[in-house]
Amino acid sequence: MKKTVKKILAASCALACLFGLFACNEQTEKEIINAYDLAVQNGFTGTVEEWLLSLQGASGKDGADLDINEVYDAAVAEGYEGTFLEFLKEYLSVDVQENNDTQTIADNMTSVVSICASFKTTQTVQMGWPTFSQKTTVNYSGAEGSGVIIDINKDAGTATILTNYHVVYEAGSDGERDISDCIYIYPYGARERFSTGQYDMDGDGSITEADRGDIGGDGIKATFVGGAMAYDIAILEVSGSEYLKESCATEAKIGSSEDMAVGEKVFAVGNANGLGISVTSGILSVPSETITMSALDGSNTQQSFRVMRTDAGINHGNSGGALFNAKGELVGITNAKNVEDETDGLFYALPITQIQAVVENIQANNGIAKCAWLGITSTVTASKSVKNEHGTLDIVEEITVSEVIKTETSDGYKPGAGLDTLKVGDVILSVTIKGETHEITRSYHLTDLLLRVREGDTISLKVLRDGTETNVNITFDSADFYERG
After folding, report:
1. DSSP characters for 279-304?
2. DSSP letters along 396-452, please?
3. Distance between CA 483 and CA 474 in Å, rounded?
């Protein structure tokens, strides 16, 4: 995010159709070898059209009936003497360079919007002797950030947009929950001009309410419908927008941050430095870690967030934007960067799998997050093992119940749903919720799953107790929830 008054640091390779292959025979002349005939020689059955479809896959997947290595081997058998790479470059209409999927990136960029928010802050100061009067001042500030469209109805001109809470929040401002009541979004290609109230836009010689929110351009008024400061997530809605109906805006395709592996290519899309939607690229450096920063409410407390780390550039204005994987799937919401001296390439995004649970929770609880609470503390044995499956590295943690809380805490939480069922020493193996069983191999798995619990729900925990696997059923009532604003 970029603020004008107060700054907050939180910001397959598809084969082309093969028309013919050439190979040199033992004589000096080149003869044409038909690729379809080679495919038939290697066991393919079907028409030429069916063979061409098999190369690209009937559903967009790589064809399973013919491997390109088999085509090369057949060409060699017919007399071709070059290497496999020379074969690709010389005879096939295939891009053998690094994947440059500009179409996917274009789709990604149209699902991201720029966001401008204006804040009005009214302060009354008590003046001392001799007047003992009050002085009221009105100040305006503004923020620029990014958002991601997760749902859109072009016919109705409606959309749901995710952004960071800190993009639309200013501690002490006049809006309800200190949220801006003057939020505008700009789809890709929209003409942007936004006044934060610091400029005399109407030319009357003073900065007045009339100047605030003079957006010009193609700004679309958005409404805050809910959010959670603790997760740095806000949900915005747009309705009845004629501009949106005619725009190129699309909704993002949601992926899974849980499926991401270290080294995967990622793209960050957002309104960097308030200059409009742009894209940077990098890799996923760390799939899950925790960072701590100053609380958004301006207090002296610290707030922690679970994030993904990447080296794809994320700057002021990128806050609330998107992190996409190479398939063009949304895997994170960008929210921060490390600006310490002599530190480069440390940028962060909130993992989309957790954020999906947060958003559904907020929508189910009238705009606030209500988290289910088991009433336990746990001990995590970090990196109990690292397993290498399918060429990736996975950290495996063991989560053991270290305390069952029997009294209210200083935060006012109730004892928790697991008071009479869980025991100290239980190792939590899996959780079954809403008919789905989830293995617990990282400490955050349990807390993320509890975001999906609603009042009256029953979940089943498989625990290892005294060397024996035991199933524990827990039902949550209204006392087993707490708000995370």
Report:
1. EEEEEEEEEEEEEEEE-TTSSS-EEE
2. EEEEEEEEE--S--TT---S-TTTTT--TTPEEEEEEETTEEEE--SHHHHHHHHTT
3. 20
Domains of the chain: 2-10+113-246 (2.40.10), 21-91 (no CATH), 253-360 (2.40.10.10), 369-484 (2.30.42.10)
Most confident by average pLDDT, 97-101, 103-107, 228-232, 480-484: 228-232
Q: Using an 8 Å Cβ cutoff, are 224 and 234 in contact?
A: yes
Rounded-to-10 torsion of CA 154, 156, 162, 164: 110
H helix or E strand, kind and range, residue 223:
strand 220-228
Local structure of 110: helix, strand or coil: coil
Strands 253-254 and 329-337: parallel
The span from the CA of 118 to the CA of 168, in Å, is: 8
Q: pTM to 2 decimals?
A: 0.76
Residue type present at position 453: V
Q: What is the pLDDT of residues 6-21, one digit of tens each?
A: 333 555 222 223 323 3
**Token reading at 81:** 């003497």
276 has pLDDT over 80:
yes
Burial bucket for residue 396 (CB in 10 Å: 0-12, 13-18, 19+)? middle
- Lookup: tokens for 5: 């008054």
448 in the Ramachandran plot: left (φ > 0), alpha (ψ -120 to 50) or beta?
alpha
Q: Which residue, among 154, 148, 152, 142, has the nearest Cα to 114 in the 3D structure?
A: 148
Tell me the Cα Rg of the chain.
28
Distances (CA, A) of 225 to 215, 277, 407, 443: 21, 24, 35, 30
Q: At 128, which amino acid appears?
A: G
N-to-C CA span, the chain:
20
